[in-house]
Each structure stands twice: as structure tokens, then as C-alpha cells.
Amino acid sequence: MTVKIDKKIVGYTLVNEEDKAKAAANLQAQKDAANKVVQLGEPLSRPDKLVGNTYKIKTPVTEHALYITINDVIMNEYTPQEHRRPFEIFINSKNMEHFQWIVALTRVMSAVFRKGGDVTFLVEELKSVFEPSGGYFKKGGKFVPSLVAEIGEVVEQHLQEIGMLKKPGLDHHQKKLVEEKKAEYLEKHAKAGEEVTAEGFPKGAQLCTKCNTKASIVMDGCLTCLNCGESKCG
Fold first, then answer.
1. Do 178 and 229 contact (CB within 8 A), yes or no?
2. Cα(180)–Cα(183) distance, integer angstroms
3. Per DSSP, what are the bridge partners of residue 166?
4. Strand pairing partners for 163?
5. pTM score, two decimals?
6. How far is it, in rounded angstroms, from Cα 158 to Cα 78?
7. How far is CA 199 from each of CA 58, 66, 159, rounded to the nearest angstrom?
8. CB-based contact 211:228 (threshold 8 Å)
9. Is residue 42 predicted with pLDDT exceeding 60?
10. What is the arithmetic mean of pLDDT over 69-90?
């Protein structure tokens, strides 16, 4: 093959077999580096014994209850830094309708748990899944957008119990204020014959956008939640 040289030759060098081998080795090293998988951390190995909790959930979208078991591994045992972190999750039920995707979900979640690092992001990812049919209300009037979201709530509850997430809620003074406002409202409207739910909230209450509970009522000209204290007026 003939190659036309358009530029002036200012220097030259001879390429021997050793140079060719070095160039090939460098090229292969670059390809290996590009294809190398970066590991964020060493996966945790499974101990012979794990501690954990089992949670029962019964929803309107499943015929039978779901039993969610989350097992934890104890890190830095017998040291001041001892703590628990989730290692694996299992979901069992007599209902076989959701068996396939539940098995897939628990295997992926268990793999994330074993990988280590911050696993709290799973809570928001699961709770943000919405059911095309519109979700459902749990006992107590709390709205749940999907079965996956309720699984996310169980994971959130477990992470709060082992200290990986901070438990939300009102302080002592806020709780006292909400209870006083709730008692004041119910006493005022009880005379008018207004009915309340089994949880003590007015039946005509609206859904709170913060705690997803039907407990928001207009109080002092402002929409206020009698469950979590959320107020549109601040």
C-alpha cells in the first residue's frame, strides 16, 4: 500500500519488535482499565447467626397477610462502635399472586444490604412507587400509594429501630399543643353531632399531605392536621 507524505520529514526512528510489544501491552492495559468494574466496598459475608424482626402487613390489595423479615448483622461487636445494619430481607405470604416480583425485589434489596454503605435511599425509592389503580387506605386513615410503598414503610420502620434513620415526630411541647387543639376541636363539634373515626379524627377530615392521614381540619381559619401538627399557616 502506497502512502503519500504531504509534510516535510524532520526526523525518523526505527520500530523494532520490542517497541511493538510495548505498544500492544499499553493498548491492552488501557482496554482492561476501561472494562474494570469499580467496587465500592467488599460485600459482607453471612454469619452463621443473624438477629432480626418480622413485620406483618395486611392490605386491601392482597387476600392474605404479608410477613416481612429483615435480618441484621452486628458490626464491630463488643466495641463502642457496635451497631446493627440490615443484611437480608424475606417476604412470605400464602398469596402467590405477587410471588415473582416480590422474590426479585427481596433478592435485589438483600444484595444492596450486603454491599454495605448507605442503604437508607431504598426507603424513598420504594415509597415513591405508585399503584396505577390509585393506592389504598390503611387502618387509621393513612393513605398508601402502593404495596411496594408499604414495604418501603416497613423498611423505614426497621431502619429507625436499629438507629440508621432518625425517628420523625413532634417534640413534647408540639405533641401537647396538638392534643390540646384536637380536644378543643372535638369538644366544640361534639355538640353539633359530628362523628369521629375509631382513631379519634373527624370523619370529614381531609388527607394530610405530610403524614398521609385523614386528619386535617380547618382550625382557626387554617388547615391543620390533628395527627402530625402540619399546618398550612406555618
1. yes
2. 5
3. none
4. none
5. 0.62
6. 22
7. 18, 24, 26
8. yes
9. no
10. 91
At 40 the pLDDT is 45
Residue whose C-alpha cell reads 425485589 in the numeric block: 105
Cα Rg of the chain (Å, integer): 29
Q: Could you tell me the sign of the dihedral formed by the alpha carbons of 61, 58, 91, 77, in that order? A: positive
Q: Which amino acid is at 175?
A: K
99-115 helix and 147-161 helix, angle to the nearest 10 degrees: 30
Residue 226 C-alpha cell reads as 390533628
Cβ atoms of 79 and 107 within 8 Å: the answer is no
Please give the pLDDT value at position 155. Answer: 96
| Residue 129 confidence (pLDDT) | 93
Nearest to 207 by CA among 194, 216, 220: 216
Place of cell 386535617: 216
pLDDT greater at residue 161 or residue 46: 161
